Amino acid sequence: MKTNIINPETGIYPPTADYAHAIEVIEAKRTLYISGTMGLEQDGAAGKDLNRQLDLIWSNISAILRAAQMNVDNIIRITSYLRDASYAKANQDARVTALKGRTVPTTAIVVETLSGDWLVELEVIAAE
C-alpha cells in the first residue's frame, strides 16, 4: 500500500505539524475499522488519570492492530472523543508519540462519555 498526504497549499488554512488534511490510500489490500477504544485496564477498570488512559488506549489499539497483523504505521485516520477540551494537548502529544511523528487526518470532538471515568476514546482506521 502506498499513501499520499494531501495538504493543499492554497484555498485552505495550513495544517499544523501534527495534522494532515487528507491521506490518499493507493492499492490497499485491506482496511481495518477499530471501534472507539478507551483507556481501560484488562479488567475493564478505567486508568487512574488522563495520562494512564492515553497510555492504555494506545496499548489497546496496538493489541488490536497486532491481532490484525498490522501496526501503528497502518493507521490512516483517527477520531478522538475527549470528555473535556483541556485534554486536547495531552491527546495530541500521545498521538504524535504513538505515530512517531507521522501525520494522519485526525478530528477531536468534546463529548460526554457513557461513563464519567472514561476521559478519552479513540476511533481508528488502518489499512494495508
CATH topology (fold) name: 60s Ribosomal Protein L30, Chain: A
Structural class estimated from helices and strands: alpha+beta
Please count the beta strands (DSSP E, at least 2 residues each). Answer: 6
Strand order in the sheet with the most strands? 3-6-4-5
The CATH architecture comes to 2-Layer Sandwich
CATH superfamily descriptor: RutC-like
Order of helices and strands: EEEHEHEE
Briefly say what this structure is.
With 128 residues, this protein is an alpha+beta fold. It has 2 helices and 6 strands.
List the helices and strands and how they pair.
Blueprint: E1 2-6, E2 22-26, E3 31-38, H1 50-67, E4 75-82, H2 88-98, E5 106-110, E6 120-127
Parallel strand pairs: 4-5
Antiparallel strand pairs: 1-2, 3-6, 4-6
Describe the structure.
This protein is α+β, with helices and mostly antiparallel strands. It is built from two helices and six strands. The protein has helices at residues 50-67, 88-98, and strands spanning 2-6, 22-26, 31-38, 75-82, 106-110, 120-127. Strands 3-6-4-5 form a four-stranded mixed sheet, covered by helices on one side. The radius of gyration is 15 Å and the shape is globular.
List keywords for this structure.
two-stranded antiparallel sheet; 60s Ribosomal Protein L30, Chain: A; 128 residues; alpha+beta; 4-stranded mixed sheet; single chain; 6 strands; 30% strand; 23% helix; globular
